[in-house]
Design goal:
The complex is a heterodimer of chains A (558) and B (432). By secondary structure, chain A is of the alpha/beta class. Chain A has 16 helices and 27 strands. Helix content of chain A is 34%, strand content 27%. Chain A has a six-stranded mixed sheet with strand order 3-2-1-4-11-12, sandwiched between helices. In chain A, strands 13, 14, 15, 18, 21 and 22 form a six-stranded mixed sheet that branches. Chain B has two domains: 4-331, Arginase, Chain A (3-Layer(aba) Sandwich), CATH 3.40.800; 339-431, no CATH class. Chain B has helices at residues 28-36, 55-59, 68-71, 74-91, 124-136, 152-158, 206-224, 250-260, 277-289, 303-306, 310-328, 398-410, and strands spanning 4-9, 45-48, 63-64, 97-102, 112-113, 141-145, 164-171, 195-200, 228-233, 264-267, 339-340, 343-352, 357-366, 375-381, 386-392, 418-423, 428-431. Classes of the chains: A alpha/beta (558), B alpha/beta (432).
Chain lengths: 558, 432
């Protein structure tokens, strides 16, 4: 049996599954002040009639990290930065509490200026004096050679509560994002650690010995103990849970659109051959661009409860939500009211919906029917336009080879999956407008919990072999090793796969879910003068977001 | 701050040959540096995917022998398309300026193309410029070529065009490929002074480049009053470039770009792929976007060791003065060549070093006060091709046009493999 729990902003959902069949579903209001109590409330009825020994795994998606960042409940962080020449300090994030070192590496990972230990000591004493307990250490091109970051960590020793190292958090190049990512990781580390330990205690007290996982922004899971080192990866796990829920509840491996139509927003996700797409570099949170792997979503300020106004002879939807739909006692007309009036959904009080629509209709000189129609059409158009723009953007992503430019894979969605309250009334017309077959999903009210429950462990690895230097660096592992000069790309892929498996298992993956994908494999001859002096081999591997072994996409979830 | 468009296309799967300077690896470290600096995350730097140029875009500029598809590959069409994309973003007002960081380059490709020379098959700047004129109206355009090699292809294409100012600053042709680009190459009889060459001595450093920029390039641009400034941004003046002998730095390149303030920059050469290009390109992007580039510095940069000698400084000062005086005096130049039946003829022997082809060309221009003048070209290459081309310029006068049309009709086909008729104004290209 598997238990999935999604602690969302408004509701906490739990779903208990056995052999991919939903045995029990629970929905309670979330208490933002005390997430643990919501957890307890959601699971108590489940555990009342469940032998905890029968649980195979528990997966939790939580807003704790997201909220800490968005609501600025974060700790002060000292940053030690080895930046080298390039963009000026004024263009780096976080000028306060930042100490710039003179040491740096170049793009090939050669040390240009060695580390000055005195500078590190000065930074450390300055931060201690300022009462800073959390530290981030980031070097430009540290993913090409982590030696400076590792040496700095060693010098710092145990003098701080937490130290985050840039290279551990992502293998991708982007110094500014790496600084932001490392900063966030350090800033929420204490808060997250407390939370994780409390969850572990809670579960143990229930008598559960099954492994506990946390859902990450990329729709994959990580063992809760491992996650304590990488709290930043647990942000945005709610939207990720929803997308994984759609993946579990839909069937087939097509190009598809997933819409989560909520009260305030509509979240859009895109699947290619049934696999959710990831952000190119990383997700954005609290105005910061990061290197945190995350599912690619687009959110628009139009949901079922968005306020509708009549402005300059036109309908204006959202982005603000000012309460429930009028049909449910809210103050203003909303898309939900239009659907209620037109008989597309049956909730609340149709007369109240009509009265609210009438206020706009009078202003516009239309009948209530006409206005309701207009409100619905405008909502549909707004969602449709955003979906098309999003797909278009994905299909026009820059590529860097002639092959990709000419033969590049284009996303052509054929299916549309919808979850969220207002979907019922919008599915048919949206499907028609987007040229997709619409599907309303079963168990949609607990889709997030189901998504979390069934998500597999994901991780990635970035390898760079430089046969002139005779080194192989594995960025995320902070490892540099010797390789013989005749190393070939296939050797690197084979080795990378082994190391990725080890890493995934360390993160909590089971042997039967290690489906490896080669994201990038590039090999360049390095020529200097008239001689080929070596090869520059770049390999990126991942375990892509997906569902645990045993899930059958033909059968889906019952 | 300015909004800058970036068309980045490193063509990681294309090379002239595996160990050729123009190979897959060329922009690899540039990509690393651009990505690591996070330049694409700034709201005022936007990346665009290149479009693919069409045959008609090439035919507006070149006479490809025997035809376009025989002398270009997809890579050339993408790199020309990348330049066009950059231009479209600027002219549509989507961005303030744009940088086409694309390969392969194009500035050695002349009007007639029998093959590749100086790593170039088609002239990507010229294709972009004629595209601009076709779609956005006839503009006065200045091209400033800062590649270390003389931009002889661009010079050839615009030799007779009074509306296109071509300025090339490069290493003296007596010491470097292609061996041309001297001060007396000053434009055709109908376009005197719209070709300016600044041959700089080997070992010229930042000081010398910036001196000619301030004392020759900028004053001439000021007087020419172009609608658009294009920079052929070759990066091989760098002190680490393996095939040239100059001492320009990444910071110098950024400063030059900032002062020149081009609307569109297009990458040309530059083969110090590891020690120069990453820093030069980041510097140019920062400068174009209006960011602080004072921290751009190569790891081994040593301004003292790179300083140019006093002799070089003195030489450049004299050179700059002579060129500027020649420009100011351009309208008084009387001797433009021998006029026969209203035409002035020049003979050229063109060597295609990349493909090993030799071409003999006789080019006649109709002396004309009202337009750039009808151009007639007879070309014979050791590939066996013997062709004749009639080129009607953009904004042509009625007389040049009528004569061009008549000559195309009356030229007997049997004498040549092909007879081409290229009409830039009406965008017509005919072959018989």
């Amino acid at each position: 049996m598997i238990l999935g729990i999604d602690v969302g902003g408004t509701h906490t959902d739990a779903a208990l599954l056995e052999d991919f069949e939903v045995k029990k579903k629970v929905k309670v209001k979330t208490n933002q002040e005390d997430i643990l109590s919501s957890l307890l409330e959601a699971t108590s009825s489940i555990f009342a009639s469940l032998d905890p020994k029968r649980l195979r795994r528990i997966v939790l998606s939580t807003t704790i990290s997201t909220n800490a960042i968005v609501q600025n409940k974060i700790r002060r962080v000292g940053l030690i930065i080895a930046r080298g020449p390039g963009i000026p300090p004024s263009l780096l994030p976080f000028p306060e509490d930042t100490y710039l070192l003179s040491a740096y590496m170049n793009h090939r990972g050669f040390e240009v200026v060695p580390l000055d230990e005195k500078e590190v000591e000065e930074a450390v004493s300055r931060f201690i004096e300022a009462g800073i307990e959390h530290l981030g250490v980031v070097g430009k091109f540290c993913t090409r050679n982590p030696a400076h970051e590792l040496a700095i960590a060693k010098l710092i020793g145990g003098r701080f509560k937490h130290v985050s190292l840039g290279h551990k958090l992502s293998g991708r190049l982007n110094f500014r994002r790496r600084i932001a990512t490392t900063y966030l990781n350090a800033a929420i580390s204490s808060l997250y650690r407390r939370f994780a330990l409390a969850v572990m205690n809670f579960v143990r007290d229930l008598g559960v010995s099954a492994p506990v996982y946390i859902l990450k922004a990329d729709g994959g899971t990580i063992g809760i103990e491992e996650s304590i080192q990488f709290p930043c990866q647990t942000i945005l796990s709610g939207p990720a849970a929803s997308i994984m829920g759609v993946l579990a509840l839909s069937r087939g491996n097509s190009d598809a659109i997933a819409l989560d139509i909520g009260g305030t927003t509509t979240d859009i996700a895109v699947f290619a051959d049934g696999v959710p797409l990831l952000e190119g570099f990383g997700v954005k949170i609290g105005g910061l661009k990061t290197l945190i792997r995350g599912l690619r979503t687009r959110s628009i300020g139009a949901g079922g409860d968005s306020r509708i106004k009549w402005q300059d002879g036109k309908i204006a939807i959202g982005p603000e939500r000012e309460g429930d739909a009028a049909a449910l006692g809210g103050p203003y007309p909303t898309p939900t009211d239009a659907m209620v009036w037109l008989g597309l959904i049956k909730i609340g009080d149709r007369d109240k919906a009509g009265a609210a629509i009438y206020t706009l209709a009078r202003e516009a000189g239309l009948s209530v029917d006409e206005m309701a129609r207009k409100m619905l059409d405008t909502t549909l158009e707004k969602i449709c336009e955003a979906v098309k723009e999003f797909v278009n953007e994905i299909n026009n992503e820059p590529v860097y080879t002639i092959h990709e430019l000419l033969e590049g894979r284009k996303i052509r969605p054929t299916n549309l999956y919808l979850v969220g309250g207002p979907s019922e009334g919008l599915a048919e017309p949206l499907g028609k407008m987007l040229g997709c077959t619409p599907h309303l999903l079963p168990h949609a009210e607990v889709a997030n919990a189901i998504g979390a429950a069934l998500a597999r462990t994901t991780t990635e690895l970035t390898l760079l072999a430089d046969t002139e230097k005779r080194t192989l660096t594995i960025a995320e592992e902070g490892e540099t090793m010797y390789i013989p000069p005749r190393t070939k790309i296939d050797d690197i892929i084979t080795l990378g796969k082994e190391r990725l498996k080890e890493r995934a298992k360390r993160m909590g993956a089971k042997e039967d879910e290690l489906e490896i994908e080669v994201l990038e494999e590039q090999e360049f001859n390095m020529v200097r003068g008239f001689d080929t002096i070596g090869k520059n081999i770049r390999v990126k591997l991942q375990i892509k977001p997906g569902l645990i072994a045993g899930y059958n996409s033909e059968k889906g979830i019952r | 701050m300015r909004k800058t468009g970036l068309v980045f296309f490193p063509a990681f799967d294309w090379a002239i040959a595996p160990d050729h300077p123009e190979r897959e690896e060329r922009l690899l470290y540039t990509q690393d540096q651009v990505f690591e600096e996070g330049l694409l995350d700034f709201d005022n730097i936007v990346e665009f995917k290149p479009k693919i140029a069409k045959e008609e875009d090439v035919k507006r500029v070149h006479i490809c022998v025997p035809d376009v598809s025989s002398v270009v590959t997809e890579s050339h069409m993408i790199s020309a398309g990348g330049a066009i994309t950059a231009a479209e973003k600027v002219l549509s007002g989507e961005v303030d300026n744009a940088f086409a960081l694309v390969r392969p380059p194009g500035h050695h490709a002349m009007r007639v193309v029998h093959g590749a020379r100086g790593f170039c098959n088609i002239n990507i700047e010229a294709i972009m410029i004629e595209y601009i004129r076709r779609h956005y109206g006839h503009k006065r355009i200045a091209i400033v070529d800062t590649d270390c090699h003389h931009g002889d292809g661009t010079q050839d294409i615009y030799w007779h065009d009074p509306d296109t100012l071509f300025i090339s600053m490069h290493q003296d042709g007596r010491t470097l490929y292609p061996g041309s680009g001297f001060v007396d190459e000053f434009g055709g009889p109908n376009a005197l002074g719209t070709t300016i060459n600044i041959p700089l001595p080997p070992r010229t450093s930042d000081e010398g480049f910036l001196y000619v920029l301030d004392h020759v390039v900028l004053p001439i641009l000021d007087e020419f009053q172009p609608d658009l400034i294009i920079n052929s941004a070759g990066q091989d003046n760098h002190y680490t470039d393996p095939i040239t002998n100059m001492r320009f730095s990444a910071h110098g390149y950024a400063l030059l770009n900032d002062k020149l303030c081009p609307d569109i920059a297009v990458l040309e050469g530059g083969y110090s792929i590891e020690h120069a290009l990453p820093y030069v390109n980041v510097g140019i992007i920062l400068a174009m976007a209006g960011f602080d580039y004072s921290d751009i510095r190569e790891p081994d940069y040593d301004p003292e060791a790179l300083r140019q000698s006093a002799e070089i400084t003195a030489y450049i000062e004299t050179l700059a003065e002579a060129i500027y005086r020649k420009w100011q005096d351009r309208k008084n130049i009387k001797d433009v060549g021998r006029i026969v039946n209203g035409y002035i003829k020049r003979r050229k022997r063109i060597y295609y070093d990349t493909d090993g082809i030799v071409e003999f060309q006789e080019e006649s221009v109709r002396v004309c006060d009202s337009c750039g003048g009808l151009v007639l070209i007879e070309s014979r290459a050791d590939t066996g091709y013997h062709i004749y081309a009639i080129c009607v310029p953009g904004r042509s006068c009625a007389a040049c046009r009528a004569e061009g049309e008549y000559i195309f009709e009356s030229t007997p086909k049997f004498k040549y493999n092909y007879v081409y008729f290229q009409d830039r104004e009406k965008d017509v290209f005919l072959v018989k």
